[in-house]
Amino acid sequence: MQESTALRPDHGVDATGLELALRELAPEQVVAGRPRVGAVELGSLKDCSVGVWEITPGVSTDVETDEWFVVLGGHAEVAFDDGTPPLQLRPGTVARLRAGSRTTWTVTQTLRKVYIV
Q1: 32 vs 29, 35, 70, 105, CA distance in Å?
Q2: What is the average per-residue pLDDT within 8-37?
Q3: Domain region containing 7
């Protein structure tokens, strides 16, 4: 379950310092380690949701939604089942994921990102 915290117009938040409640991933998503995830929705812009998401080290699989994001901290690689070259994620990376992409996330350092979906 994703938390929600409204970000009012003309205000800001330190996305690197937000407290996120972490939860275990579904066992069928875990490949190695014990990755945990957490997220907080900051609000919406037109039809898009904006928030902060974090995942701890480990290897897990996912089926993506259409998403843009900016990595705030951490390191990971996202491999694609269709053979698309993997994404190397580190602070400052801006990336876009396509709905339906089947991915494997190898997180070596807790990854935090701001997302738009």
Answers
A1: 9, 8, 25, 10
A2: 94
A3: 3-116
